[in-house]
């Protein structure tokens, strides 16, 4: 597994908890962190000594939506190389447009149960 340091940017505490628990079930060596505010996440990324291997990003959040976050993220030198996975409970037109606009972006619809979260994350992380 190539991703050992994962950042989740998601304002839903329940979804974040399930995500972290699923990562731990997949591999206890995976380090994960959660930020519930996209603006704070950008600030932490700018200041980070060690960057995440991948960012999972909820698209619909207060302060910045996923597209705005990506625009700002990729303006910061050194951060454009971090893979990003849009992680959302919805798959509406805004998300489809973001996936078209940001070529290397992946999309993962939030699964409905814990086993599906594990299976979906394993597929992305392997």
UniProtKB/TrEMBL annotation:
Keywords: Phosphoprotein. The modification 4-aspartylphosphate is found at residue 58. The keyword Disulfide bond does not apply. InterPro entries: Bact_response_regulator (IPR050595), CheY-like_superfamily (IPR011006), Sig_transdc_resp-reg_receiver (IPR001789). Residues 5-125 form the Response regulatory domain. The keyword Phosphoprotein applies. It comes from the Bacteria. PANTHER family: PROTEIN-GLUTAMATE METHYLESTERASE_PROTEIN-GLUTAMINE GLUTAMINASE 1 (PTHR44591:SF24), STRESS RESPONSE REGULATOR PROTEIN 1 (PTHR44591). This is Response regulator. The lineage of its organism: Bacteria, Pseudomonadati, Bacteroidota, Flavobacteriia, Flavobacteriales.
